[in-house]
Fold these 3 entries.
Entry 1:
Amino acid sequence: QVQLVESGGGSVQAGGSLRLSCAASRYTYRMAWFRQAPGKEREGVVLIYTDSGNTAYADSVKGRFTISRDNTKNTVYLQMNSLKPEDTAMYYCAAGMDPRSPWTRASFYAYWGQGTQVTVAS
């Protein structure tokens, strides 16, 4: 079992920045951020592989969001710049040992955080 603790959400004006953190209780093969807006499907935002550091980004956030990791702390960070109102959502940290693709499939992640709200005002 893995526990995930998220932090860093909040409210910001369009064009602003936030940094989210997710600390896992132990090693996992990969960690990702998903987000879900009211009435919409949960979507994968960004992925990082713990060992290699390789990443993947949703097209909607590429160039604006950056994921990084600190493997000594089993922690990942999501730096979000140039935020847009359409980025408003509950952001969930996900982790797992399942190597299957596509990485955007939520069912491939066994562990989930409680979520942290990100609100971007226009």
Entry 2:
Amino acid sequence: QVQLVESGGGLVQPGGSLRLRCAASGFNFSSSFMSWYRQVPGKERESIAGISITGRYANYVDSVKGRFTISRDNAKNTVYLQMNSLKPEDTAVYYCKGPGGNWGQGTQVTVSS
């Protein structure tokens, strides 16, 4: 029973920071590539960051590269997304993603002054 629980979102001013967390269960987290997605109403859900099994390699969409950092703690079955220098266009619901087609409830990030 796959479960993904995102948390850490909220309202932040432009230039601010947030750290998102995703607690995973129901699958072999330590052998799974993990990623973060985001979605705004009327737009496609887009992949923004991914991290390899051990955390040695990470990739990012160009729009967040240099500002966001994905990391993981395999002992805690948790993946993180540190978001710095936030922009209004980062406003979205953020989801984590494992190897299957399951989604959590997401966590809302709103960047506004």
Entry 3:
Amino acid sequence: QVQLVESGGGLVQAGGSLRLSCIASGRPFSWYGMGWFRQAPGKEREVVGTITRSGGSTYYADSVKGRFTISRDNAKNTLYLQMNSLKPEDTGVYYCAARVTPVLKTTASDFDSWGQGTQVTVSS
């Protein structure tokens, strides 16, 4: 019932920055807890960061803590991921995900709606 579309991916050099966006439609955005996940070639999908529907609580994987920031603008039905100090190991397809819940979720299995993904490639 909710549709998610990611954008903002691309090719950047190590140490650079990138901002991803995810626009939601179909149901009120404020109903959903949201998350960013990524999948590198040959690896399983892993959590990057998640955020509660009000934006009051966030969770980050240890690998991105201090470098990435997840945020949302409910008035714009948009989820963001600001990525700074990018490393080659950040390369992968980045997905946004949604779940109707007031509780902070931290794993892919907690989410039931997914976008199509956007490619992020970090060169060394």
